[in-house]
Amino acid sequence: MSVTAFSNELLNRTTAGGNASLPAERKALTKKETAADHPTWCPGCGDFSVLALYYKLIEKRKMEHEKITTVAGIGCSSRFPYFVQAHGAHFIHGRALPFASGVSLSRPDLHVFVFGGDGDAFSIGGNHFTHTARKNVKMTYVVMDNFVYGLTKKQTSPTSPLGFKSKTDGWGSQDRPINPMKQAIAAGASFVARATATNLPHLLQMMELAMDHDGFSFIEFLSECKEFYEGAFDAANPRKGGAFLEVPKEHNFEDEYAAYKLADAAWPGHFGLFYKTNRATKNANEAKLIADHKAKVAGLEDWQILQKSFDRMK
Ligand SMILES: Cc1ncc(C[n+]2csc(CCOP(=O)(O)OP(=O)(O)O)c2C)c(N)n1
Ligand code: SF4
Ligand SMILES: [Mg+2]
After folding, report:
1. Sign of CA dihedral 245, 223, 111, 158
2. Are 217 and 191 in contact (CB under 8 A)?
3. CB–CB of 233/227 below 8 Å?
4. Which of 6, 61, 111, 208 has an alpha carbon 20 to 30 Å from 293's alpha carbon atom?
5. Closest ligand, as measured to the CA of 153
6. Does the Cβ of 119 fall within 6 Å of ligand 2?
7. Of the ligands numbered here, which is closest to the C-alpha atom of 151?
8. Quick one: pLDDT at residue 14?
9. What pTM value is reported for the model?
10. 172-192 b/e with 16+ CB inside 10 Å = b?
11. To the nearest whole number, what is the mean pLDDT of the chain?
12. Which of 216, 217, 20, 184 lies closest to 105 in space, CA to CA?
C-alpha cells in the first residue's frame, strides 16, 4: 500500500473521533490535566516536542487517565514519565522494554508507550530492543535519538557519527554508528517510522499510526541535544538550510526490502512510515496459549490441576 492511500485512511479514522469506549460524561483530558512536574530539560532540547505531542495525542484520542501508561529507562529523554500525570515508570537503564512487555502482556486493555534515548535503546538496551521487536509485543516505542549520551554529559552513543568528539572519544569517534531504522527492520519490528523535531504535525501523525498498530511500533525521532550536540540535525531542518524529505509517495511500506533500502539513503534521509506489516503479536499468541490451557482444565479445582502436574512428573 502507498503512504498516501494509508494517510488518507488514517485522516478519516482520526477525525471521526478517538476512543469509542470513553463514556459520554468523560471529557478529553487537556494538557493542564495531563502535565505533571515542570520538565527539567535544557531550554531548546528536542525532547520538549515529543512531550507536547504526547499531551496532544492523549487529548485528541480521548485517552482515559487510568489507561495511559508511560514507561522509560534512564537518560534525559527517559525522564519523560515524571512529566505525565498518569501511570508510568522510570525504570532501569536499558530495561524499559522488558518492563513494558510485562505491562503489555498482563494488561491488554492498555496501550503502553515507551520513551527513551539512543543509549538506552541501542547500547545497554540493545538486546532488549531486538527481542521485543522480534516477539512483536504490542507497544509504541519512541526513541528520542540525539546521537549522544545527554544525561551523563557527552559520551559517544551508538548513533554518534564517525569523528564525533566526546568525553569518551577525545580524538573523535572511531566506531561505525548503527542505523536505527535498519536495526529495527532487521530485528523484526512490525512498524517502523522516522520523525524529527522540525515537523511536529508529522510526528503526531506517526504517533497516531504507531498507536493504532497491533504490534511493536517503533519511531526514531531526531531530537537535538542543545547542550552537547547542537546543530546535529540541521541538515533535516529547513529553517537551518536543510531539507525535510518525506518518504517518497510511491514507497510500498509493506515491502521489507524497499524499507531497508530507504533506510540506507544518504544523511539526513527520509521521514515517515518506512515499514508496516501485520503478524501475530506475542500478546495474541500468549492469550491463545492461556485460553487453550484453561479449556483443558475447565471445571477442575486448583489442587486437582496441581495433582495432574505432579502425576505427569512421576
Ligand atoms: C546500569 C547503568 N549504567 C550506566 C548508567 C549511566 N547512564 C545514565 S543515562 C546514560 C546514557 C543516556 O543516554 P541516552 O540513552 O542516549 O539518553 P539521553 O540522556 O541522551 O536522552 C548512562 C550511560 C546508568 N544509569 N545505569
Ligand atoms: S543535556 Fe541535552 S538531551 Fe539533556 S536535557 Fe539538555 S539538551 Fe536535552
Ligand atoms: Mg541520547
Report:
1. positive
2. yes
3. no
4. 111
5. 2
6. no
7. 1
8. 47
9. 0.93
10. ebeeebbbbbbbbbebbbbbb
11. 93
12. 216
- Written as nine digits, the cell of 23 is 463514556
Written as one letter, the residue type at 168 is T
Q: At 18, is the pLDDT very low, low, confident or very high (cuts 50, 70, 90)?
A: very low
Q: With a cut of 50, say whether residue 20 has pLDDT above it.
A: no
Could you give the domains of the chain? 3-279 (3.40.50.970), 280-314 (no CATH)
Q: Is the CB of 225 under 6 A from ligand 2?
A: yes
> Does residue 158 line the site of ligand 1, with CB under 6 A?
no
Ligand 1 pocket: which of 124, 141, 142, 143 to mutate (most atoms within 8 A of CB)? 124
Q: What is the 3-state secondary structure (H, E, C) of the chain?
A: CEHHHHHHHHHHHHHCCCCCCCCCCCCCCCHHHHECCCCCCCCCCCHHHHHHHHHHHHHHCCCCHHHEEEEECCCCHHHHHHHECCEEEECCCCCHHHHHHHHHHHCCCCEEEEEEEHHHHHCCCHHHHHHHHHHCCCEEEEEEECCEECCCCCEECCCCCCCCCCCCCCCCCCCCCCCHHHHHHHHCCCEEEEEECCCHHHHHHHHHHHHHCCCEEEEEEECCCCCCCCCCCHHHCHHHCCCCCECCCCCECCCHHHHHHHCCCCCCCCEEEEEECCCCCHHHHHHHHHHHHHHHCCCCCHHHHHHHHHHHHC
